[in-house]
Amino acid sequence: MIIMEDTILLPKHPVISEGAENEATFTIEGLHPGYGITLGNALKRVLHSSLPGAAITGVMIEKVNHEFSTLEGVLEDVLTILLNLKQVRFRMFSNNPETVSIHVSGERKLTAKDIKCSSNVEVVNPDSHIATLTESSSTFVAELTIERGVGYVSRDVLRHEKVQASVMTLDAIFTPVRKVRYEVEHMRVGTATNYDRLRLSIQTDKSITPKEAFLSAVGILKDQLKQLESFGEVDIFEQQPEVVSGEGFTKEGGSKDTEEIDAMQTRVEDLKLSSRTVNALTKANIYTVENIVGKTADELLDHEGIGEKALTEIQRAIGNLGIILKQEE
After folding, report:
1. The CATH number of the domain covering residues in 52-173
2. What positions does the domain DNA-directed RNA polymerase RpoA/D/Rpb3-type occupy (predicted)?
3. Structurally, what CATH architecture does the domain formed by 15-51+177-224 represent?
4. What is the rounded distance in angstroms from the CA atom of residue 129 to the CA atom of residue 193?
5. pLDDT in tens, 15-60
6. CATH number of the 258-319 domain
């Protein structure tokens, strides 16, 4: 008589086989049949899309108004220079945008090591080529905006943020992971020969180590799954809470309860917004949730420093309180 297994065995601890400084392979053995692809695909997606990093989001070059320009005494055109700047990788120790600068002259090659950074920013690939100055009278002066983010953000999204006319926005590749590859093969566990061995290879941009990337991805997956263990205090068959509208600050029922009033008095600093968005709201004399929901989305976008990205952040923050913006009439 064959006794069927009714439990899923846990895999062995990962074994790291390091290659270059920014490359490593993680081997996980003893995975339940089929779990090699399940975990490998999940980890690969998280590594590519969900790890935070830093990238250049805006460039302002002296005597340049658009990316299709050329610079006298510089071999590369501006478009090529921008593409080269996208390859420069940074390590940031601040959550706020940072401005770094370049100011060089003379016949020489311009590389990432020529970028003058504050104490909150570090260039991790200083040998990355940016431009070639071909004459002794050549000069290159620029300011770069460095920001932290997650995954990839296109320049079209960044353009919605209000920036100076002379600033050229770049597609921002925030993820610190360059390549991820995994393979699955069968292995023997006891008498069974259909268990999985997962090999996951990670290459980073050197701003973090492959081990840090792996552990971050595992932590993200664990946090997401942990949230699914509880369905919350409200039963799914109970009536869902009504959404508070900015129009008059009342629920559909018409009465204001204490919790709603408290939510309206929440200060913008307590909404877990980015410093950039908080500063923009404060500058617009918007200090509480009540001030926010008294405005429509278009009215918020009219304020300096509030673009589509900031608007989405604001809507998500007040949405967590069960509140929405004032609707267009």
Report:
1. 2.170.120.12
2. 23-231
3. 2-Layer Sandwich (3.30)
4. 51
5. 998 777 899 999 999 999 999 999 999 999 999 999 999 999 999 9
6. 1.10.150.20
